[in-house]
Design goal:
Number of strands: 13
CATH architecture: 3-Layer(aba) Sandwich
Distance between the termini: 8 Å
Strand order of the largest sheet: 2-1-3-7-12
Largest sheet: 5 strands, parallel
Radius of gyration: 18 Å
Structural class: alpha/beta
Number of helices: 8
């Protein structure tokens, strides 16, 4: 029986719920970035005992995992047979603070933690900047070495080659182009720019980890009736079905 870990986003995690598969034992690491995974813990960070400001528990756990840098240890302890990477969550800026990095996700933004001394005054590192690109490419090499230097070497590494959809389908079947996309309210995003970034990241990952199995589906279409709402990376069921079929061929 496979034991799966996902380092990525809801586009991979949702495969289990969309296909009706049992997700028991699935380790899901989200709302992080490869450079942040390998950075030191944020010194002085104090997590709240309960999720703050309306965050759900899993959202809060993702923020705490990113700031305390406990995800890699969790990954090794999980001893997965398969590790699936997708880079859709690599859309957020990074923050530099006190000699380390954090992922500036929406969840971190609303958590209130940015007002803590450990994070106040953090320096933004724009996702599409040369500095962020350099940090990310360095972290890919670190991930390749980590996979090889730990018991994770025995796992099948899978890259879910994903991209933002350019178009979406309404409940009546009509197809429309996306307009005015935002990461969250007041944070505009360019689909073409993010897809170009994803292509560079995915290419670099496969160069660093050439044995990775790649799964992909052409021309994704977003779904206005998706359980998480309309977004360029909330796809139609057909997309999930195609990716799941390929994952099954890889032994998941």
């Amino acid at each position: 029986m496979s034991r799966v870990a996902v380092i990525g986003s809801c586009i991979t995690r949702d495969l289990w719920s969309v296909t009706g598969e049992d997700a028991a034992g699935l380790l899901y690491v989200a709302r992080t970035s490869l450079p942040s995974l390998f950075a030191p813990p944020v010194a002085g960070f104090q997590p709240a005992p309960e999720p703050p400001n309306g965050l759900k528990r899993h959202q809060h756990n993702a923020v705490v995992d990113d700031l305390t840098k406990r995800a890699l240890a969790m990954l090794v302890t999980h001893r997965p047979t398969h590790i699936i990477f997708d880079f859709i969550d690599e859309r957020f800026d990074l923050l530099g603070t006190h000699g380390t990095l954090a992922t500036h996700s929406w969840e971190l933004e609303v958590s209130g933690y940015l007002s803590q001394p450990a994070l106040s005054g953090a320096t933004p590192i724009a996702r599409h900047s040369a500095a962020c690109e350099s940090l990310w490419l360095e972290a890919v090499g670190e991930m390749a070495a980590y996979l090889q230097g730990t018991p994770l070497r025995d796992a099948v590494v899978i890259l879910h080659r994903a991209r933002w959809a350019d178009s979406w389908r309404d409940p009546e079947g009509g197809v429309h182009d996306f307009r005015g996309v935002e990461l969250w309210s007041g944070r505009p995003a360019d689909i073409g720019q993010h897809n170009a970034l994803l292509e560079r990241y995915q290419t670099a990952f496969c160069e660093a980890i050439p044995h990775a199995v790649q799964v992909s589906a052409p021309a994704p279409l977003a779904d206005a009736t998706h359980r998480w709402g309309l977004s360029p990376f909330h796809y139609t069921d057909e997309y999930y079905g195609e990716i799941w079929s390929q994952l099954r061929e890889a032994g998941v």
